[in-house]
């Protein structure tokens, strides 16, 4: 077996929130990245993928365990490790050439050498001729190419990519991914190993020699899978499809348990909700209920039929499972009897069933509803609820979670929310129709 370039053993990480609460984010993570391999990291949003990447780059210290780079403990940012971010992170006032040269400047390289190296990296990634352009003059795909050139110009031993293709449209993302694989296989990159965080199962199957799946709360490695398909890989080939199915199954197993909410470390009230839009939930249920699926489909087929990306389909599937409208098992979605009633029902019945399931299966929604019922005015400020969530979640996540709960609760007419006034209230009129979520 090739030797490990980067190695994590028993890594744990906690974050302290503003009010001093300590939250575990990663728990006992073992991971090694070996010479010559591409590893893909999949996992739900918030499972600690970006945190893990920053740890691997030496940007973030660990609270437990060890990080080694080529056998030596890693303390502080490592020059040999390059990173590419989803957001491109380019300086808007610098040209392509200047953006790429930045990393070299920091190393005190002479001007001429810098220019030559940056020029070569820009050409390698297919941007020759654009050296003088400003980021705003480039398309998203080209901007991300600059981001990659900036990482490659330092000749990193290891390249870490954090959802580097997910801000791009599908075709542009695929094209860039293929170009990177071609450089990798052609040996024109100095890089010895790559770790790719992805939201996209197909992307992981096309790129990686090994796929690691993270579970959330706290983040830990749920399982790993070797991918031995010959390259270049055809994402629509039978072998690739079978692997995509298998990973879907791995990522959705135990959905029943997750549905009951509370992880070991977090009260049920603050359990994350899948970021799922109610309109899309309805759409997906209808698609599932209809021919040719007739209530039963595996997720890859459904992804195809619905034209949804994995990153959007999985939260929808988890949300429907949590609400008991479908059963999710080994990557298969099965409409439940309740789900069938829901789909067949009119507007009113759908609201009623949705509301009833929310109260039964989403503790945060039930808690807010019960609190509002105690009030003569039928309303309460959002602050105490947000404060409660902030004890267990980051600021942005607490707000996100409340917003998801509100959008679901509106659909089930469980409560209303006036975001500007920061007020939650019981629904007033009969069937007054929803405000925009
Ligand atoms: P992912 O990339 O898988 O979506 P992240 O690694 O970004 O997940 O985040 C994992 C968890 O750690 C989240 O709950 C997030 O709010 C929290 N977190 C990340 N960075 C910080 C930080 N600097 N301070 C506090 N909490 C953080
Ligand atoms: Mg992330």
Distance between the termini: 53 Å
Structural class: alpha/beta
Proportion in β-strands: 15-25%
CATH superfamily assignment of the largest domain?
Answer: P-loop containing nucleotide triphosphate hydrolases
Subunit organisation of the chains: single chain
Mean pLDDT: 89
Q: For the largest beta sheet, what order do the strands appear in spatially?
A: 6-7-8-3-9-10
What is the helix tally? 16
Q: What is the CATH architecture assignment of the largest domain?
A: 3-Layer(aba) Sandwich
Could you say how many structural domains there are in total? 3
Taking all Cα atoms into account, the compactness measure Rg is 24 Å
Percent helix, as a range, is 40-55%
Q: What is the CATH T-level topology of the largest domain?
A: Rossmann fold
CATH class of the largest domain: Alpha Beta
- Using DSSP, what is the number of strands? 16
Plain-language structure description:
- This protein is of the alpha/beta class and 437 residues long.
- The chain folds into three domains: 33-61 and 73-213 and 226-251, P-loop containing nucleotide triphosphate hydrolases (Rossmann fold, 3-Layer(aba) Sandwich); 269-342, Winged helix-like DNA-binding domain superfamily/Winged helix DNA-binding domain (Arc Repressor Mutant, subunit A); 345-425.
- It is built from 16 helices and 16 strands.
- The strands form four sheets. A six-stranded mixed sheet has the order 6-7-8-3-9-10, with helices on both faces. Strands 2-1-4-5 form a four-stranded antiparallel sheet, with helices on one face.
- A hairpin with a 5-residue loop joins strand 1 and strand 2 (22-34).
- Helix 6 (201-207) packs across helix 7.
- The longest helix has 17 residues, at 170-186.
- Residues 255-264 and 430-437 have low confidence and may be disordered.
- The structure holds adenosine-5'-diphosphate and magnesium ion (MG).
- Residues 15, 25, 43, 45-51, 394, 397 line the site of adenosine-5'-diphosphate (ADP).
């Amino acid at each position: 077996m090739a030797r490990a370039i980067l190695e994590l053993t028993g890594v744990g990480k906690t974050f302290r929130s503003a009010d001093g609460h300590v939250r575990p984010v990663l728990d006992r993570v073992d991971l090694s990245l070996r010479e010559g391999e591409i590893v893909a990291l999949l996992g739900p949003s918030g499972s600690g993928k970006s945190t893990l990447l920053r740890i691997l780059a030496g940007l973030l210290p660990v609270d437990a365990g060890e990080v080694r780079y080529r056998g030596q403990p890693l303390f502080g940012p490592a020059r040999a490790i390059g990173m590419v971010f989803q957001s491109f992170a380019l300086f808007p006032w610098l040209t392509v050439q200047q953006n790429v040269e930045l990393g070299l400047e920091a190393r005190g390289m002479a001007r001429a050498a810098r220019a030559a190296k940056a020029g070569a990296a820009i050409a390698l990634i297919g941007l020759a001729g654009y050296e003088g352009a400003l980021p705003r003059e480039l398309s998203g795909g080209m901007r991300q190419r600059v981001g990659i050139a900036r990482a490659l110009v330092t000749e990193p031993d290891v390249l870490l990519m954090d959802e580097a293709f997910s801000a791009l449209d599908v075709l542009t993302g695929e094209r860039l991914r293929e170009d990177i694989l071609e450089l990798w296989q052609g040996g024109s990159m100095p890089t010895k190993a790559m770790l790719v965080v992805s939201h996209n199962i197909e992307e992981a199957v096309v790129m990686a020699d090994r796929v690691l799946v993270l579970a959330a709360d706290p983040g830990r490695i749920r399982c790993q899978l070797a991918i031995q398909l010959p390259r270049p890989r055809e994402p629509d080939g039978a072998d690739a499809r079978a692997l995509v199915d298998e990973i879907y199954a791995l990522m959705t197993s135990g959905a029943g348990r997750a549905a009951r909410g509370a992880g070991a470390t977090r009260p049920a009230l603050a359990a994350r909700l899948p970021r799922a839009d109610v309109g899309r939930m309805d759409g997906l249920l209808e698609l599932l209920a209809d021919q040719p699926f007739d209530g039963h489909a595996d997720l890859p087929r459904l992804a195809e039929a619905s034209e949804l990306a994995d990153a959007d389909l999985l939260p929808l599937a988890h949300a429907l499972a949590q609400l008991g409208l479908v059963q999710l098992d080994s990557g298969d979605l099965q409409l439940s009897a309740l789900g069938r009633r829901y789909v067949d029902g009119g507007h009113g019945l759908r609201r009623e069933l949705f509301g009833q399931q929310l109260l039964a299966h989403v503790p945060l929604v039930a808690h807010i509803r019960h609190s509002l019922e105690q009030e003569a005015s039928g309303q309460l400020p959002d602050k105490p609820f947000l404060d409660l969530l902030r004890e267990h979640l980051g600021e942005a996540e607490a707000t996100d979670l409340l917003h998801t709960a509100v959008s679901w609760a509106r659909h089930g007419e469980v409560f209303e929310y006036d975001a500007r006034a920061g007020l939650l209230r019981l629904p007033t009129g009969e069937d007054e129709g929803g405000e925009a979520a």
